Please model this.
Amino acid sequence: MAEDAAEDMALGGNITLSGFKDISKQELIVVKKIVGSYARKLSDNVPDFQELKVNMKAVHKTEASEKYELHCSVFYGGEHFDVEVVERNLFMGLDEVLRKVTEHAMKDAQKRG
Model:
């Protein structure tokens, strides 16, 4: 468990990334920009937005190809919603998982009025 905490990366006060230690610096910059963009959208549109957590795990690693398993959780107003996506392209998977949690949280916030 202490190993997991060591690889957690906090961005701002409400974003946590974990499992991204094995990607390049250039890829990490893009990951941070994508996650930051969705976090801003959540904080602007979901009144009780508290935290966004993204976890990445490389699975089925072979020389020619690999897949990324991405887990994302959004916490808001005492609620939370989780999504999991497996994708060959890290950025496509990240966009998909973040889009799904963002859409869910925004729809839920609209219902609450």
About this structure: Confidence is low (pLDDT under 50) at residues 1-5. The chain has three helices and five strands. Residues 2 and 79 are 26 Å apart (CA to CA).
